[in-house]
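Final report, closing paragraph on structural work. Over the funding period we assembled a curated collection of sequence-structure pairs, and we close with a single example.
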Amino acid sequence: MNKINLIGLSRDELKEHLVSRDVPAYRVQQLWNWLYHHGVITFDRMVNIPKPVRQLLSDSFVIERPKIATAQASTDGTQKWLLQFSDGQEAETVHIPEVDRGTLCVSSQIGCTLTCKFCHTGTQTLVRNLESSEIVGQMMIARDVFGEWPSPVGQRHVSNIVMMGMGEPLYNFENVSKALTIIMDHQGISLSKRRITLSTSGVVPMMERCGEELGVNLAVSLHAVRNDVRDVLVPLNKKYPIEQLIEACRSYPGVNNARRITFEYVMLKGVNDSDADARELLHLIRGIPAKINLIPFNPWPGVSFECSAPERISAFADIVYRAGYASPVRTPRGRDILAACGQLKSESQRKRKSA
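Its predicted structure, as stored:
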C-alpha cells in the first residue's frame, strides 16, 4: 500500500486520515506544528507524540518534499532550484534576495498552456498541474536551504511569495488555494496574505474567487493596451479580452489604495513601448488603485523580441509616474542563470497531459 504524503493535506484531510486510523483528533494540531512550524522530515523528531503513535504514523504516512535536482546561483545572489517530484517531473523555483525582503517565485504547473510569445515557459507545453504538496514543498525546500526552522518571527530569508513561476495559477486554483491556505496558517509557516502575490495572465472567471477565498495581492500580466497586440503577446486575450480583464480588476475583492493591483508590463522594442501606449495604459486603468511594474524584456536563445532601450523605458515610466501611478522598473535578477522573469523552463519530459 502506498503511504500518504502528509505535506499538502488540509487540516480537515489530516484529521480524517488520523481518525480513520484511531489516532485522536487532537493530534492534528501537534502534527501540524511539527510539519509546518518545525519543518521536521521524520516522525521520530515529534517528541510530544507517544512512540506507538509515531510508529503508526510512520507505517501509514510519509513526510515528502520535492528533491533539488540542480541548484544554480547568480552573481547577483539570486538562486534557482530545479525541483524533481515523485514522478520524475520537474519545475523551477527562484529565490530573489533584496535589502528588505527575500522573495520566493513559486511555480504552479509543469509547463504552461498559455503560449505567451515573450515568455520562455510558454514554449514548454503543459505536462501537468502541481499538487498542493508540491507547491507547499517549494516553500519548505527554501526554508530547508536557509535553515529557517522553526518558523522565524523576525527577518526571514523567505519573507514573500510570488506565484509567478511556471504555469498559470488560476488554471490550478484548487491546488494553489489549498497550498497557500497552508502557508498562511498562523500555527505553521505563518506567512501573511499581504506578503503573497498571485499573478494571472487574465483568467477572468477565477479572479473574483481568488480575491474572496484567499485575499492575496493580485498581479495581472497585461503587457499591451490594445486587443490586437495582446492577442499576439498573450493569446488568452482572445478568450478574455482587455475590456473584461480590466472590469474584473475594478471589482477585485478588497482592492483599495492600501492593496493595489499590480499591472505587469514587459517592455518590448517597437511593440508596446511608445508614448501613445503609455497614455492608453493610463486611460485603461483610470480609477483602479494600481501600480505598474515595468519589466525590461529578458531574452533567451532564439527569441525574436528585443528589450526596449533604457531611454524608452524611462520615457514610458515618466508618463505613468506623472499621472500619479507608481511605475518601478524591475531590475532584472538572475539573467545569467535564466532565472529572470519569463525565463523559467524546466527540462522535464514535454508531454501534454490532461490537467
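The chain has two domains: 4-62, 67-337. Residues 67-337 form a domain with the TIM Barrel fold (CATH 3.20.20.70). We thank the funder for supporting this effort.
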